[in-house]
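Worked example 2:
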Amino acid sequence: MVGPLRNTIDINNFDGKSLLENGDGPAQELVNSLQVFETAAASMDSELHPLLVQHLPHLYMCLQYPSTAVRHMAARCVGIMSKIATMETMNIFLEKVLPWLGAIDDNIKQEGAIEALACVMEQLDVGIVPYIVLLVVPVLGRMSDQTDSVRFMATQCFATLIRLMPLEAGIPDPPNMSEELIQLKAKERHFLEQLLDGKKLENYKIPVPINAELRKYQQDGVNWLAFLNKYKLHGILCDDMGLGKTLQSICILAGDHCHRAQEYARSKLAECMPLPSLVVCPPTLTGHWVDEVGKFCSREYLNPLHYTGPPTERIRLQHQVKRHNLIVASYDVVRNDIDFFRNIKFNYCILDEGHVIKNGKTKLSKAVKQLTANYRIILSGTPIQNNVLELWSLFDFLMPGFLGTERQFAARYGKPILASRDARSSSREQEAGVLAMDALHRQVLPFLLRRMKEDVLQDLPPKIIQDYYCTLSLLQVQLYEDFAKSRAKCDVDETVSSAALSEETEKPKLKATGHVFQALQYLRKLCNHPALVLTPQHPEFKSTTEKLAVQNSSLHDIQHAPKLSALKQLLLDCGLGNGSTSESGTESVVAQHRILIFCQLKSMLDIVEHDLLKPHLPSVTYLRLDGSIPPGQRHAIVSRFNNDPSIDVLLLTTHVGGLGLNLTGADTVVFVEHDWNPMRDLQAMDRAHRIGQKRVVNVYRLITRGTLEEKIMGLQKFKMNIANTVISQENSSLQSMGTDQLLDLFTLDKEGKAEKADTSTSGKASMKSILENLSDLWDQEQYDSEYSLENFMHSLK
């Protein structure tokens, strides 16, 4: 039975090369011998077991035999031995074989060791529990191995071990365990406690300056990301919206880039070589990411490349990649340029709103899974745990094989969970569903971090305000530039300049003053949507509509209004508009965010309703509250929204929605356009944040970059990242603006940066005289009837 085993394998002088040269004959003999060993050993009398134990060293040597068939049979024999002589087999296994997992230069040893471990686990079943702590960490290290076979088996072993982990706590060490192994066990247990309980994580000191004070839960999040980094793990950060997932990611990105650079300078090891990182996000967020990186971290540490634009522009950018250590690109761009991206080894690959790859069969998911990176992180604000069947594709990106193949996953978790949700399910099916869900949660929990706003209330201000910058569409830029060349612009220049020159106190003519205001109104409407200004009276109306028709487009196409695209993305991020059930048929259990959408103008609300919600997000339910609704009926709409959680959105005008209503049913506020009087916007925000609101309110403001809108926001000292901004009468009106500043409002900044001109005293006086006739710029009338721009249109020629 053991003749070939003893004759072929020399335990003192094992030489794989010479065995390979001997051909298949000896290998086949060895396989036959091992098959007999496996069958006979299982049924031998226990008195003969010591004889079998003598052959353990030979079996372990067979695990590094060049032939796969020999290694496979040897692993099965080790499995049988672990069952009949557990203590002896495991002691030698832990001491001699387990370290082979770390032999990254010898695939054969790695494959032999991981296959033997899989067989031992299969045979011992719950008997493996006393050894779990010693096995988990080496196996974990191989879950990101370059060799597919090693990675796949390691991931499956880890999945089984982590499910048995809770049983380990009260079990004593096995007898005859060496002192070194007992000490190692204590050290590894400390690691596992951190893995399973985020509160026990070590504090990570960010090695680079970050221009933000991290809240406690954000530091905890960075600690968790640093823990994953330390042990070469991957995970999903799925904090609630507005809790700062971007900031936490930037901290670990900048910190790890700095750490690698220092290590490389010290050791010159290839594995510490500085590598670029990649952030993939929806197209409306690429600019936001680049801005956020610039805001929180200096270019010295993170130098982002905004990889966007048409194919020719992207080819030009490809040559610049080497000069940057962070690339920000949208999902579609990565999918289209995957041949370029797949050849780059990244340090971090972060998928923002990563639930877009929940369906593993799409081209997008397949492309993203071809990216190679040391660390893979998914950011997602949607409650992933509820749509459990979507987890498979996400983990297939993070740790391929961790949840088995898609078919295994469906059989083990999908079927029982779906069956238990069926109204006609039996109590046994329901129990099986609960057990499957529990097992799945236990398996994925170490790699998910989710904090809800309710959990971290004490760390949060009552409002979190974020500005979303949109870039003007080509059509809007064209109209903006047409305005700059028009007679209207000359009139404005003349009016403002002549007022600045005339020192007399006599007031300029009302018509001229009206002109300034109408020009501001015109540009402001243009920032929101070109359809608001391109009316039939507009000189460019006919030529523009004809041009769009040729391109199979129209004025109401969402692509011409970046604010609508940004609003659509925000609603999707809030979990709205995807339909109430996902493709896999699982229902989302958690109540989603509910949203107030504020516009200044009733006509802009019409556009949001008819160009965005109805055609693009038909599943979103909404109510509407504007000046056309009689005051007596407004309260009924408010109470219906507050009391009916199935209504997702309330559309309001700032004027109507900003007055004394109590809208605590919502936890998210979006300003599509802004009031020039900051007090009005503050009041509107506070609609959602009243007594009775138990949640933190997220406020998003959509601002078009480089335009009058961004400049007004800047001039108004309207940065309210703190909850209570004090706005004095002095700075809350256009009257405090200088001439240069006022003229600057009418120009479009190409770079998208609003430059602030100095306020000159003569300018102040002149502006005061111009604007005095508009006794109150935000007069009631502005909201009730929209200014007629018809006469103004003629001066655009």
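Residues 245-267 form the longest helix (23 residues). The first strand starts at residue 235 and ends at 237.
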